């Protein structure tokens, strides 16, 4: 069922119509089969790139579409509702482009952004490590100054698109301990010394490769650094604010898909001579699911509008990520219940959507970390 969206411009309506057309014709028919076989749908990202959908929030002069986040996130929601590996992949790619777009020098933006956001290449974001997840400032991958550039050694973990991306946005330590010693680098996939672990065997999202990224004597030129030395942690956190909104939009897309499937099934399935949708127990369940989805969508759009207005939005983004992903887990679990025994088998979409929803409570900062972010904002001195 198409969501009735309040979009800011006629152009945005046309854009969402284009996205829905691509979803119906090319993305949705692939989701179940690709997930079952663990196939990465690289060709679908090429299709999105040719349609101008991999650089939506970035400037037109570098090949982007200059769309507000309010619009970009609703595109992500539509994609994720059809195939989470694609929707989340677009979010991760957008996150990976952010450091160059927001902190890169003019020469870097001119050289890198057209390819990155024009759909020619796909990105990955390397922050977490095997022993450094929620405590991102404790990362140990090190970039040592050498021969006018840098030599990088270390291991990154839980990297979406690891082994299939064309470039990696890397956070590495250039000095000392803690947040102030971290810098940000752009690393092309064909850089010597870069290798990848076996893709993780996951509960869901099997079409989206998640793998370790290994750096063994990787040599980088001085212009590979994005922003100044020691600015990497600040860049990473700014990128994650936007990335959390992408995950919130993905969660709403998954939840909406689960509600649509459950509602259609409840209208058709008959027990005791009547549709199960007409039983109050099921009808109220569907009503609660729809309400949670509407609230989650309103919260991520509110955060997006703050971002578009140039106002602080990090706390609201944490709220949106927290609420939307918890709602998606609840909604997809309830969808399985509506289907009954059929919800537990792979012939119907509910079980896949439930498995996919779980990871959204973990990525881009666990929901426990989102609560830390929100509580600190509430209790700090000065305005919240």
UniProtKB/TrEMBL annotation:
Residues 230-378 form the Acyl-CoA dehydrogenase/oxidase C-terminal domain. Belongs to the acyl-CoA dehydrogenase family. Residues 124-218 form the Acyl-CoA oxidase/dehydrogenase middle domain. The keyword Cell membrane does not apply. Keywords: FAD, Flavoprotein, Oxidoreductase. It comes from the Bacteria. InterPro entries: Acyl-CoA_DH_CS, Acyl-CoA_Oxase/DH_mid-dom, Acyl-CoA_Oxase/DH_mid-dom_sf, AcylCo_DH-like_C, AcylCo_DH/oxidase_C, AcylCoA_DH/ox_N, AcylCoA_DH/ox_N_sf, AcylCoA_DH/oxidase_NM_dom_sf. Pfam families: Acyl-CoA_dh_1, Acyl-CoA_dh_M, Acyl-CoA_dh_N. It comes from Sphaerisporangium dianthi. Its cofactor is FAD. Residues 9-120 form the Acyl-CoA dehydrogenase/oxidase N-terminal domain. This is Acyl-CoA dehydrogenase family protein.
